[in-house]
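for the recovery benchmark. tokens below, seq after
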């Protein structure tokens, strides 16, 4: 999920300052996603791990269900989330006025 978030932020908010820039960029994130997917597939192919992986999947499904029913109503945004929302609105305003990176 972090790699996907990295790719989406690079696409949607390319102009914001970041304390660290990945030297591998988006291609590195794509490679990391592929490695994670292959690892996940091989976990299911190994009979020794299958029971544990299915148990974790069930536990995760229960957690997602709980969040969908009760947890999402108690969310509080972190400072980073507030910053990202403000920056997204700035980017949309810049695009609409034709002065942003996409308007060049």
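predicted aa per position
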């Amino acid at each position: 999920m972090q790699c996907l978030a990295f790719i989406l932020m690079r696409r949607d908010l390319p102009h914001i300052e970041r304390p660290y820039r990945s030297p591998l960029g988006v291609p590195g994130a794509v490679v990391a996603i592929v490695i994670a997917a292959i690892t996940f597939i091989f976990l299911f192919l190994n009979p020794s791990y299958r029971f544990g992986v299915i148990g974790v999947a069930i536990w995760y499904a229960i957690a997602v269900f709980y969040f969908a029913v009760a947890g999402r109503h108690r969310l509080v945004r972190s400072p980073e989330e507030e910053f990202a929302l403000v920056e997204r609105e700035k980017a949309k305003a810049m695009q609409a006025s034709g002065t942003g990176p996409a308007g060049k």
